[in-house]
Amino acid sequence: MKINYEDLVRINAELKKKNNRFHLSYRDESTACVEPPGECCRTEQMETEARQCIEEYYRVKNIFVQFSEDGLYFVCESPSGCF
What's the mean per-residue pLDDT of the chain? Predict the structure, then answer.
């Protein structure tokens, strides 16, 4: 499933509002990159909050999020299972 740039902008704004330093960008049209802050300010709590923010944003749109094993990338999946 394609990821809309507008969605990444809105999620980035929400992360900033929550004072979370993670940032989203495109890897390609169907994969987004979750860019962590520098190691000095990266915490497990901040990482969890960023993932939850992403999942909640897409949950409202009835879209599932699948993160890579390292948590640095994600793809979106429609409820029907089609990417």
Answer: 91
Q: What is the pLDDT of residues 24-62, one digit of tens each?
A: 999 999 999 999 987 767 788 999 999 999 999 999 999
DSSP label at residue 82: -
Q: How are strands ordered across the β-sheet holding 31-35?
A: 23-28, 31-35, 73-77, 64-67
| Lookup: tokens for 31 | 């994969």
* Whether the model pTM is above 0.90: no
Q: How far apart are CA 75 and CA 31, in angstroms?
A: 5
Helix axes 5-17, 44-60, angle to 10 degrees: 130
Please check whether residue 57 is in contact with residue 11, taking contact to mean a CB–CB distance below 8 angstroms.
yes
The structural domains of the chain, with segments of one domain joined by +, span 5-77
